[in-house]
Amino acid sequence: MSDSFDVTRYNIANEPTPVFQQLSAHYKKSYAFYTMSVRIPVILTNIIDRLNREKDEIVEKYGNLSREELKQCIGEISKLKYEIQTNKQMTELPGNDSDQFEWNKLLNEIAPNDTYFTAVWLYAECYVYRKLRSIFEETQSLKDFDHFEQSKQLELSKSMDAISRVIKSVNEFNSVYRTASEVGEFFCKLLKQDLWGNRNDLSITLGEEIKSIDCNPLQEIEKYNNDLLIDQTQDIWKCISVEKEDKVVDIISDNSGFELLSDLVLCDFIIHHKLAKKIRFRVKAIPWFISDVLPKDFHYTLTELEKSQDPILKEAGLKWNGYVKSGQFELIEPADHFFTSGYEFYKMEKISPSLYQSIAESHLAIFKGDLNYRKLLGDVNWDPTNDFRTALNQFEPTNLCTLRTIKADLVCGLKAGQFEELWEKDERWMSTGQYGVIQFISKRTN
To answer: How far apart are the C-alpha atoms of 200 and 301, rounded to whole Å?
Structure first.
């Protein structure tokens, strides 16, 4: 569709995003342009196809009223797709039952005249998913319908064998006495495993099925060391291994399926070795970027583990549900709508002070995935050698790290010449998910 998109009519600049500018589909030589001109329309088409294909099943579950409302939703999604492809302005969200006020405030104050291809990419792409949600939100019968649910559940089922192998390796490690250095080394391996779990992202495959993983990913970790461009796992270990009472770790989640399972394995290890007293999972409030975790996805995952015929998975499900009951694992409900807003994280303290203060009370906040990374960096095309702390624009509520496979054209913290070397190998290297970063800053002490 990018070839047929009228770049002349819509005044698209045939260049990459300038350095220190926020990303925008206005620049044709950017992943933002490709996303808005190709990826998003394909994703919306896939949703329409699925709704048409499965309408009888949906009506059976949601009642006869949903038949007509489903037609209405399909029409509205088609309209949204057309508005994106013809570069229309983003319109206010209807209703007032959740976060519409903040979204409409963003549209009116920050981007009153912006279109899908002139707005900051972060705002435009997040708006598409929020607008998609509002289409179902305004119905009577389909308010709770998750148009991505089936894809997420299928991806979870394909991930079970691989995570069973990972859990087996962790159980074997935990079965004998280990020194602190051995625990630290294994912790760093699990961090890397959790990072590469982010490669299983349905938004990159445009909702298409992800292939099953037919190996033990934990045993394959060292193969990917050359793809790990920044590795601050040792700094994170030093942070989490300090002796301090009642430590809390926050996971700002990304994808369900294999990535969430990898999160749970890492968090189990943290609890088992008394590296923290509690893990808090912060997930999305609404269907988001296809595969992001909702509260019901979290609960569904633990239930499916408990039901498994694999004794390793069943034991893990029982244990992790036990952690939920004891409070060692805490799923934050209701999920905070800030995570499905268009706002960058440096605006959190002003926009959502209670959320900022809550995260500030944790010992370590782990931000997962590409969208969280974009929000951390303000969707700014930083010089790739700018340091991580600078790029955070003073968002430093606590000790903070990010586990991110690179799926968008922004990055910071690289060594001089590293960006150019990667560019010479593959001009698409920032959108494939092949490469990753593990970055960390410690909280400043006044």
So the answer is: 16
